[in-house]
Amino acid sequence: MEKPKILNKKYKKLGKKKYITFFVVSAVFVLGFLFLYFYILKDLPSPTRLSSPENPQSSKIYDRNNKLLYTVYANKNRTQIPLKDIPMDFQNATIAIEDRDFYKHGAIDIRGIIRSIYAITVKRELQGGSTLTQQLVKNSLLTQERTVQRKIKEIILSFATEVLYSKSQILEMYLNQIPYGGTAYGIEAASQTYFGKKAKDLTLAESALLAGLPESPTTYSPLGSHPELAQQRQKEVLSTMVELGYITKEEQEKAASEKLEYETFTNQILAPHFVLYIRDLLIEKYGKEFVEEGGLSVKTTLDLPIQEFAQLAVASEVAKLKNARVTNGAAVVTDPATGDILAMVGSKNYFDTKIDGNVNIALAKRQPGSSIKPINYAVGLLNGYSAATPFVDKKICFPNPGGASYCPRNYDGAFHGLVSVRDALANSYNIPAVKMLKLNTVEGMMATASAMGITTFEDPQRYGLSLTLGGGEVTMLDMSTAFGVFANKGYRVDLNPILEIKDSEGRVVERKNNASPIFGKRVLPEGVTFIISDILSDNSARSAAFGSFSDLYIPNQTVSVKTGTTNDLRDNWTIGYTPNFLVVSWVGNNDNSPMSSVASGLSGASPIWNEIMSYILKDKKTAPYQKPDSVAGINVCRASGLLPPDTGGCETKYEYFLRDSIPKRRDPGKQAVWIDKGTNDLPSEGQTENLESREEYVIEDATGDKYCVSCPHPTPEPAPQP
What is the rounded CA–CA span in Å between residue 340 and residue 333? Predict the structure, then answer.
């Protein structure tokens, strides 16, 4: 009879454990439900709202004087159409690129998630794992915040949506509500916006392009800053459609080769290159949703009157260059002291599709030609050379390890004998500039250029001595920053095109203090920038190449200016500045084809520069550069740049020097040298016969090349404009 008692105790103990387990499980369930309700389900929107989503608030971009430039997503330009009116090619293209197993899975796609993880971790390719249902819920019912809470809501609502609606209904809602860029929501609005036609009339090529936009409407927009990305995305869509059997290879090739004709923006847009540049900056900083739906008020640095005048100057001057095979031009105007962008003209006409006018040349990498030389000469001043340092401008070749020797030539094809740094820079002679870089080293010039704001120079091994002649690509904005260092007495001030941003409630999101000049980091001594600016404003010094009344000269104004033309005539620049304004102009062709002719100082970018700078400086008093204490002005021998000999006798000139670089030696005057009897000049290299020694005035330049100043030399013929 004892066994049953033992068993009863055992069962009693088991019953007690079951009771505890049940209590714990119930408590966890209740707590879990409460957590799920208060943190997830309490504010969960109803999936039935998918038929009437709320409109986002528009954002507005203004110039510095509160003139409206552009409205970003002023409203949802959306027209509801039934699924039967949406071309099957477009439906298939969307499913192929966004959710290839749409009709096979439920609210979420486990295989799609695994495929996405594999693509990201193994192939290093960015690929989403969300279904069309999830994307519809996220865009129409939820915010774009990336949190676990939001993701849980998205999944719950996606399952509810799949219960309430059929696959066809979900696809129809998706295609009618998803954003396609700008104010275009839904396929009907997108078709009208981009192609000016109803969605039912879209071709396969047009369908593929539009189907690729929802992934990133700003990035892939054919009307945005990088239209080439839209074409790449279109080809990706077509390729995926072939892979999934929606179209044949022949249909793919035909669609890929079809030339698409786009409508221009229907929303009013002033300064289009600039406002799209602003939009891209905002999206990069704050995210697409906050910019497009946050109701922002953005006050920019743009000065609309200057912008409109610059647009007119670019268009009118490019029109005059038609016979020179020039199809495009651009200009940027800044306040170097504050970094404000006052005007940005990215092409002669944003809406001219024949020249890819929507491409913003201000952001494009182009070769600067000789306009980069002032940076090289600034490095020379840092290294102890001066504006009076002489260079022998003669035929010369530099060894190039592993390749042919580099033999630079001047733009005019002539050699100019002995020239000072001032004359070499002012007249843009190439050979002295290459010699200067040889002394400075490529690495030295690149380091200073980077400190001044050039962001596009890469490995020094990629460049040679041609870097000083424009052998490295730059952007107009970077050149504005770099030349701003000269205007700012050595301080680098980065460009900032935004003055103030307010949210939809009027609260300040960010604000720039523009009440007084804002100086950044000093990257050059003031003395160096003074001497470079003085040379670039010396109209007398540059007259040998440009004449006294070129477009580089603005009467009654002190303006520093430098031109640049690539040897292959693909790019022509003019960059000039005062302490308060800086203007960069460019002409060329977007397809990089060469121009037939431009003459810096007479045609090309310089007339554009002159028109804009003259307009800005009209009725403004000139502001001569103030010599800093670190600079001294003294008389030196014109030829050698040294102090005059004790006995006098050399032709002198007044020149500025950094106090640490004031010459200490006196010019030796005549000296015994070997002279070639045949040419009555210094002997050719290696010559040992037919020589005599006599007293002549001979200069040795910084690289060791000798030049007989007192020997007769042929007078060079007048050279064409460089």
Answer: 9
Asked if pLDDT for residue 621 goes beyond 70, the answer is: yes
Domains 75-266 and 299-365+473-621 share a fold: no
Specify the pTM.
0.71
612-634: b or e for each residue (b if 16 or more CB lie within 10 Å)? bbbbbbeeeeeeebeebeebeee
With a cut of 80, say whether residue 261 has pLDDT above it: yes
pLDDT in tens, 344-382: 999 999 988 888 889 999 999 999 999 999 999 999 999
The values of phi and psi at residue 172, to 5°, are: -65, -45
- Identify residue 615 by its one-letter amino acid code: Y
CATH architecture, range 75-266:
Orthogonal Bundle (1.10)
- What stretches of 287-372 show up as alpha helix (H) in DSSP? 288-293, 304-320
Domain locations in the chain as residue ranges: 2-42, 75-266, 299-365+473-621
SS3 583: strand
- The CATH fold assigned to 299-365+473-621 is Beta-lactamase (3.40.710)
Contacts 24+ apart (CB under 8 A), 196-200: 196/263, 198/85, 199/81, 199/85, 199/86, 199/87, 199/90, 200/81, 200/85, 200/86, 200/87
At 418, list the tokens.
Answer: 């002995």
